[in-house]
């Protein structure tokens, strides 16, 4: 009986260590790499993206963005992700951000919104992305990326709090232009 208790205690301890180590590895190794990449992606987007038109600017103001004139939309064949970094690729797959059957239509990096060329940014869809810009503006890219990755791992993509908040914009701004 003592051996069984010892084995169970060792197993619980092992699970706790692995869980703690996983979060520590993600927070101290993987996220800084992704965040550095995200800043570079935003910088590039600010240089090559197109500014919002008057209707889009008005929507950004209505949503509460402080600096809507900074927002740029970059239309791409595929929304960027650091696939060349094997660890980040596995991490993105683990949290459901990328992978087989997952199509990323749009993603925000600071003030840059990257959207697939065949993804029409209707008013509700743009509102969703602009809420992500607002979230970053309220906090920082570092903090939002960190929160979002941990939330996706914990809740799943659709139930992650930042996605839930952005999805409410789809409903609030459901009328087209």
Q: Can you give a write-up of this model?
A:
It is a single chain. The chain is of the alpha+beta class. The chain is built from 6 helices and 4 strands; from the N terminus they run αβαβαββααα. Helix content is 62%, strand content 9%. Strands 1-2-4-3 form a 4-stranded mixed β-sheet, with helices on both faces. A hairpin with a 2-residue loop joins strand 3 and strand 4. Helix 1 (2-48) packs across helix 5 (141-155) and helix 2 crosses helix 4. It is elongated, with a radius of gyration of 19 Å.
Number of strands: 4
Can you count the helices?
A: 6
Tell me the Rg in angstroms.
Answer: 19 Å
- Rounded mean pLDDT is 88
Approximate strand percentage? 5-15%
Structural class: alpha+beta
Instruction: Give the strand order of the largest sheet, numbering strands 1, 2, ... along the chain.
Output: 1-2-4-3
The biggest beta sheet reads: 4 strands, mixed
Terminal-residue CA separation: 70 Å
Instruction: Please write the string of helix (H) and strand (E) elements.
Output: HEHEHEEHHH
Low-confidence stretches at least 5 residues in length (pLDDT < 50)?
A: 16-20
| 3D shape | elongated
Please bin the fraction of helical residues. 55-70%
